[in-house]
Amino acid sequence: MNIVETHELTKVFQPRRKKGAVVALDGVSLAIQQGEIFGLLGPNGAGKTTFFKVLLGITKITQGDVLLFGLPPDDPQSRQKVGYLPESHRFPDHLTGLGLLEFTGRLCGMTTSEIDARTDGLLELVDMDKWANVKIKRYSKGMLQRIGLAQSMISDPDLLLLDEPTDGIDPVGKVEIRDVLIRIRNEGKTIILNSHLLSEVESAADRVAILSRGKVARIGTVDELTSRKSQFEIEGDFASKLVSIPEEIGRKLSISSNRLIVELVEDSKINNVIDLLRSKRISIRAVQPLKVSLEQSFIETVTQPGEKKA
């Protein structure tokens, strides 16, 4: 089941002057499934936050189609099962953490008993139970993120929109938040995660979309985005062995005493390479697709030829 569907979603911001229109989203087509963590990546100005605002009905689209739980964003019912943690949020600092959860619960139309049944577990889940009765104005940046995550989950939503959820949280906290998100996903919830920390997305997301200049530049699983097409690393004993790869199979990229890297015309040709090495009595210890980090894949995707890499 698709929780979010967009087809040729386009958003153009028209300034008061006729010139200088900004295309924030340009023909974005996505289908986000129930029970997955979907990572949304892109440089500043790529359209990530605009995408969230469109889903929440804050920003109206210029053209295209958007469905949230099968309903258009301008239907308030589409947001009944959505939790949201914005980037750079500002909570009323006279409230305590517990008070914020109770206030958010009332805004969501929850009864007092429903709110009480959720707050203790949420505060413990985000490791804020000891700070529940402390006013928000005394919270650190990391504590604000934790209580913000809790308030986004107060109504037990089926979809979470999280914009930089671990901003300001220490490395141990980042791992804890990641584990929380995976636990929520395993309960059948859907999470759309917008983060500039690519390692965070790489370790948590099931699928990732890379936005560049308002377009979907690439989309796929983390494995798909980090695998070098038809490149393999073979570990073995290559010392003093002459290894050549026929052109119809592929080519040799590099070789050392214990490692051979090849690029093949298609993935299935790896079997031919293995047969070739065995015929030369070369001991093979491991064969695996060659991968790059999600960060490298991201940079290669969003950096155009001739542009300076940031």
List keywords for this structure.
4-stranded antiparallel sheet, globular, 310 residues, Alpha-Beta Plaits, alpha/beta, 6-stranded mixed sheet, disordered C terminus, 9 helices, single chain
Structure description:
The protein is α/β, with parallel strands linked by helices. It has a domain of 65 residues: Alpha-Beta Plaits (2-Layer Sandwich). 30% of the residues lie in helices and 30% in strands. It has a 6-stranded mixed sheet, with helices on both faces. A 4-stranded antiparallel sheet has the order 11-12-10-13. A 3-stranded antiparallel sheet has the order 2-1-4, with helices on one face.
CATH architecture tag of the domain at 228-292: 2-Layer Sandwich
> How many strands, which pairing sense, and closed or not: the largest β-sheet?
6 strands, mixed
Q: In one word, what is the shape? A: globular
CATH third-tier fold name of the domain at 228-292 = Alpha-Beta Plaits
Strand content: 25-35%
Helix content: 25-40%
CATH class of the domain at 228-292: Alpha Beta
Mean pLDDT over all positions: 88
Number of E strands? 13
What Rg do the Cα atoms give?
Answer: 24 Å
Number of helices: 9
Question: Termini distance?
Answer: 38 Å
Concise description?
With 310 residues, the chain is of the alpha/beta class. The protein contains 9 helices and 13 strands. The protein has a 6-stranded mixed beta sheet with strand order 5-6-7-3-8-9, sandwiched between helices.
